[in-house]
Design a protein that fits this description.
Strand content: 15-25%
Order of helices and strands: HEHEEHEHEHEHHHEEEEEEHHEEEEEEEE
Number of helices: 10
Helix content: 25-40%
Structural class: alpha+beta
CATH superfamily of the largest domain: Creatinase/methionine aminopeptidase superfamily
Radius of gyration: 23 Å
Shape: elongated
CATH architecture of the largest domain: Alpha-Beta Complex
Distance between the termini: 46 Å
Strand order of the largest sheet: 4-3-2-1-5-6
Largest sheet: 6 strands, mixed
CATH topology of the largest domain: Creatine Amidinohydrolase
Number of strands: 20
């Protein structure tokens, strides 16, 4: 390993230690000492562990990662200053046995990350103890990204855009929606993505009016709107972009629909700034769509946070009072969906700054004619 790599690794471990310190301060303010972290993205954020099975015990002066034998070597290599416990039978049982040995009687848990079955089991095993729900402590830390995290998201966004460009150069109207989606995901992999961040959406003609349409064997055809929504995972961080394409021409009604959504998206991006309420950004998009009498055709929120997960806080919805902070990374994705005509959605990833925002997505927003 080069000196540069060693320094980068040391800096990453220091960043994780700082995150744990912040979490401990938040726990102390909530009058808690011990927290069971069960959300895998949260475990990765705090320790660097990327396995698919694990629990993390956060205490005032120690961290313990519980996982199974598949991840013995990996867990020790990816973490530092974390005690790793490997179970050959049950990870949850190993955690409980350790809890009893340490005589921990009061334990907070992530209520938004644990299954009801696991909750019932732990509550039953901790008779005489206190098993208390805590919501979103780690997620609140994750909302504001470091410069390094924003760089990782930017790289993911760039890769995602490159995959889109590659496919646009080769796509044909006789392709099925499923082929278009699979080609995009294939190009992501070729460019180095770990995987798609979510199932790629490719929907044409009247099916474009379904906001989360799953790709079918239906052909794309000419002279129709096609919505393409996709994202990549790179170095653990997600990207998300929606663009509209067509083969040939679209009619006047479809063109007007596209222009209305593009104007709404620009208005929402223009409203993004540290200190602005999330609901204000959402209302900026809805105000434009109302002007075009399309407010009832906008059926979802204007955007969401993203990072280690494709959907993270904050949510940019009509009644969201949370104020944006510099370093938050969010999507801006208004849409309008008219049954029998088609739908339009345009989505970019932006990083909130003190003076506005940086649009990380560089792919042009125009209706792409192939």
């Amino acid at each position: 390993m080069s000196n540069e790599q060693t320094e980068a690794k040391a800096a990453l471990f220091a960043t994780r230690q700082a995150r744990v310190a912040q979490l401990r301060r938040r726990l102390a303010r909530a009058e808690h000492e011990f927290l069971l972290v069960s959300g895998l993205p949260n475990i990765r954020y705090l320790t660097g562990f990327t396995g698919s099975s694990g629990y993390l015990l956060v205490a005032p002066d120690f961290l313990v990662l519980y996982t199974d034998g598949r991840y013995d070597i990996q867990a020790r290599a990816q973490t530092r200053d974390v005690e790793v416990r490997i179970s050959t039978v049950s990870v949850l049982l190993a955690f409980l046995e350790d809890l009893k040995k340490r005589r921990i009687r009061r334990l907070g848990f992530e209520q938004n990350r644990i299954s009801f079955d696991t909750y019932q089991y732990l509550r039953g095993e901790l008779r005489g103890g206190r098993f208390q729900p805590l919501n979103g402590l780690v997620e609140k830390l994750r909302m504001v990204k470091s410069d390094g995290e924003i760089d990782r998201i930017r790289a993911s966004v760039d890769l995602n855009s490159c995959a889109f460009e590659r496919v646009c150069h080769k796509a044909r109207p006789n392709w099925s929606e499923a082929r278009l989606a699979s080609e995009i995901e294939y190009q992501m992999r070729r460019l180095g993505a770990e995987r798609a961040a979510f199932e790629t959406i490719a929907a044409s003609r009247e099916r474009s009016a379904l906001p989360h349409a799953q790709p079918t064997v239906q052909n794309l055809r000419r002279n129709a709107l096609i919505v393409v929504d996709h994202g990549a995972m790179l170095d653990g961080y997600a990207s998300d972009m929606t663009r509209m394409i067509c083969f040939g021409r679209v009619d006047q009604r479809q063109r007007e629909l596209f222009e209305a959504v593009r104007e709404a998206q620009l208005a929402a991006i223009g409203a993004v700034k540290a200190g602005v309420r999330a609901g204000t950004v959402d209302r900026s998009a809805r105000k434009v769509l109302k002007k075009f009498k399309l407010e009832k055709e906008f059926s979802h929120s204007t955007g969401h946070g993203l990072g280690l997960e494709i959907h993270e806080p904050p949510r940019l919805g009509p009644k969201e009072d949370l104020r944006l902070r510099a370093g938050m990374v969010i999507t801006i994705e208004p849409g309008a969906y008219v049954e029998g005509v088609g739908g339009v959605r345009i989505e970019d990833v932006v990083a909130v700054t003190n003076n506005g925002c940086e649009v990380l997505t560089k792919t042009p927003r125009h209706l792409r004619v192939l």
